[in-house]
Write a structure and sequence with these properties.
The chain is built from 13 helices and 15 strands. It is of the alpha/beta class. Helix 3 packs parallel to helix 5 and helix 8 crosses helix 13. The two termini are 37 Å apart. It binds adenosine-5'-triphosphate. The site of adenosine-5'-triphosphate (ATP) has 11 residues, from strand 2 and helix 1.
Amino acid sequence: MKYAIETFDLIKKYGDFLAVDKLNLKVKDKSIFGFLGPNGAGKTTTIKMLTCLIQPSSGTAKVSEYDIVEDPNEVRQKIGMVPQLVSLYGDLTARENAELCADYYGLPKDLKEERIDELMELVDIKYAQNKLVRQLSGGQKQKVSVVASLVHQPEILFLDEPTIGLDPTTKSVLWDLIQELNHEGRTIILCSHDMYEVDMLCDHVGIIDKGLLAAYDTPQGLKDDILENQDKKTGLNISQIMRDLEENSNVNNISSFQKLKGSMIESEKANAREISVKIDNMCAPIMEELEKLPFIFEIAPTKSGRISIKIVNSADAVTAVLNTIIKCQGSISSISTKDPSLEDVFMKVTTKHEVEGE
Ligand code: ATP
């Protein structure tokens, strides 16, 4: 498989402080890679090394198959960068800034003008091309920055929080642009704290924490991992509980389950999972059967005619609830579960890492 980026034990120290710690990361060619991490985790430092703005303390990386230490000039030809803080010349116009970038890459005049026109139209900033950058709004500056970074048609584009502070419409224009650039065959490295943005755009995600790679997978893979871990984590054997409950249901002896509810389950409450079910023929017997289930913490009808159920966080518990409703001849017309989001993954991974690092 071809990788756009491959790092090899990449380390950056500032004095004694280890900002990036033996990072080994692979970014697939022509993919959109989300690079996440808490504030101060080492994302910008990594990006600065990969874009040859700073040198690694040790280790190295290949960017578009060129070594960042040995061939920085070749790397610079292959990459474009939209930095966290827009770095444009305030006393030059939007167009002059883009032209300066094109000149840096040695683009012939005709090609330079053609590309700048094309890109300015694409991000909708041509109307402001003759304004001084210092007179532009934050979003307008960001668009000029994107034009300047793309003028030499880089293979790999680094975007460090490109949509921060942008209004929803401008954000959406940039998201479309990122996807379009990717469809054209460019690899995109996206640093962002916007989990919706990352989830929607990225093929793969790496989460860095305290300079170390704490997680790497597809967004869905990371979310599935949390679900699987949660399912494994519960100390309850839901299938056994259901069997016991069935055996005891004739004599209505549920005291042992109530005891279970009061003690063992207490530890599971913090990780409770919520599901909401719409039962068309909802009636008292269904509710009574559900209330018997010892792994349910809360059950309540909602204003919209659904029932909201808080249960032990396990797929088996969800199945048991649904089986109970079906056994009572309940007709389920809709189910929704609050499955983990990328934000949950982020918090879990970075918190876990903190505990491990103690
Ligand atoms: P954020 O999400 O807040 O932008 P980040 O993940 O990009 O954070 P970095 O900017 O890479 O984080 O910083 C990583 C660590 O390195 C931080 O603790 C920061 O204080 C430190 N650091 C960054 N640049 C320098 C520098 N020039 N000198 C000393 N320490 C630095």
